[in-house]
């Protein structure tokens, strides 16, 4: 369907990440292929017409699409198709959007996955700051800066990669990181003197390694051991190696990896009393609901800790006919 490519071209002007654009294409083609494979009207995919996409046909296709997939994946595909038809209606290609007639599962907000263990961030930073004789070319200043910026500013992987040396701005006492956020939403994250010092130490070490031209304002903030900008795979590998050196692999939630540092930042904000609105601004969330999950998880953890306390177990034992719990 050529209309799919037209839609993706239009979406590209909004500057979504390559991964987001690939997900749009994947979801559109997957459901379209199921429509084309319908036993009653089998068609080659390139012969599929927009007129073939009636509400009844789309409901059947989405039912088959949903069977092996998680609700979040189905919800994402539904949203993609809804955007596709909204685009077609706007361009007057079709008269109406059939997607409201196609059921979709409720989107469950992903639960935060911070590093486990109250002292884990401190253990990680201390381990990364030490020279490791097993490394061929140790660069603790750079490694500490990567982990510290992720832990103390809560940046996404793509946001870390987009940082420039000039992204750090402001006078002493008013320092900040200017972040090119998700969905083209820029934000500013204040940084304290300790993080400012860590980044300054890293940039000094970088000057010694590669010369003063390596720290021009438009240069990538995070670089590899050859002075080249870190890429996605290199940054992920670096953070994984930091976890291994700190011996905390079992404290990193499965599927979180680098994102666990961002979740730890947000969770600690919530534990220290930050509101959902403050967390939303600092993390660059599009909705307050995403930020609220950190507060709800923290409240749940606090209640579990209280329930498990020895004092509460003693109180439960005093109540006739009730066994201690926890």
Automatic annotation (TrEMBL):
Swiss-Prot/TrEMBL keywords: DNA integration, DNA recombination, DNA-binding
Example GO biological process: DNA recombination
Limits of the Tyr recombinase domain: 110-307
GO molecular function terms listed in the Swiss-Prot or TrEMBL record: DNA binding
Protein name: Uncharacterized integrase/recombinase
Highest taxon above the source species: Bacteria
Core-binding (CB) domain span: 1-89
PANTHER family named in the record: PHAGE INTEGRASE-RELATED, TYROSINE RECOMBINASE XERC
Keyword Cytoplasm: no
Pfam family, one: Phage_int_SAM_1
Presence of the UniProt keyword Cytoplasm in the record: no
